[in-house]
Amino acid sequence: MYQPDIKLSLNIPIVLDVKSAIPLIMGANIGTTITSTLVSFVQAGNREEFRKAFAAGTVHDMFNWLTVCVLLPVEILTSMFSWGILLKTACVQANSYSYLQYLL
C-alpha cells in the first residue's frame, strides 16, 4: 500500500517544522486520489465489476477531498494538529503518557 506521507518525508532534503509539513502531507494525499479511479479501469472488461470499482474509487476520492477541505482550514485557523503532534512528541520523549489521558 502506498504511504504518501512516508514517501514525501523521504524525498525532502531539508528539515521542515510540523506546521509546514502538514499541508504538504495533505497535498500528497490529494495527489493520490486519481490512483483509485485509474485502478478501477482494470475492471473495464466486466461491466458490473467496473461499475462497482469505479464507484468505490470515486467514494475514496471524495473522502480524501472532503477530509482535506475540512481539516486543512481547521489546521490553518487553530493549529490543532501541530500542537497535538508536538504534545505527543514531548510526552514520548519524556517517556510519560500521563498527560495524554487528559486529552483523550
Structural notes for this entry:
The protein has one domain. Helix content is 73%, strand content 0%. It is elongated and about 55 Å long. The model has no long low-confidence stretch (mean pLDDT 77).
How many E strands?
Answer: 0
Order of helix and strand elements from N to C terminus: HHHHH
Shape: elongated
Number of domains: 1
> Main beta sheet: strand number and arrangement?
none
Count up the helices.
Answer: 5
CA-to-CA gap between the ends?
A: 29 Å
Helix share of residues? over 70%
Regions with little confidence, pLDDT below 50 for 5+ residues: none
**Mean pLDDT over the residues:** 77
Find the structural class using helix and strand composition: mainly alpha
- The rounded Rg comes to 18 Å
Beta-strand level of the residues, as a percent range? under 5%
Task: Explain briefly what this protein structure is.
With 104 residues, the chain is mainly α.
Secondary-structure topology with pairs:
Layout: H1 4-11, H2 18-31, H3 33-40, H4 47-78, H5 80-93
Helix pairs in contact: 2-4, 3-4
Which tags fit this structure?
73% helix, 104 residues, single chain, mainly alpha, elongated
